[in-house]
Amino acid sequence: MEIWLNPACSKCRTAVSELEAAGVGYTVRRYLEETPTAGELGEVVTRLGLEPWDIAREKEAREAGIDLPRDASAREAWLAALAEHPRAIQRPILTADDGTTVVGRDAGSLARVIDAERPG
């Protein structure tokens, strides 16, 4: 399991606590320090079944000057903008070893990725 997080974020801290309580092994990627590439972000949104603008934090995107159409013609521009301004990416993002990926901001999403990580 990999978790993209910002340690200052309460939702990220909650996700880590839930992983630890479930006994699930994980690696941490502090995505503000180890910024994901546009390609990595593209893979993540595909696994999520979302588009790049769906994982953008509205306020941070606005503050970063990301003002792009929310349609397929701007998909690559969104990925590049989020890679350039990682504070605008929703967090935490968790990916289980089987590829199950969630934005872990709620208990249901965390349970889904934890269940995917458990054997059997």
Automatic annotation (TrEMBL):
Pfam family for this entry, one: ArsC
Top EC class of this enzyme: oxidoreductase
PROSITE patterns (alphabetical): ARSC
MF GO annotations: arsenate reductase (glutaredoxin) activity
InterPro entries from the UniProt entry: Arsenate_reductase-like, Thioredoxin-like_sf
This enzyme's EC code(s): 1.20.4.1
Domain of life of the organism encoding this protein: Bacteria
Keywords: Oxidoreductase
Record's protein name: Arsenate reductase
Species of origin: Nocardioides panaciterrulae
Lineage: Bacteria, Bacillati, Actinomycetota, Actinomycetes, Propionibacteriales
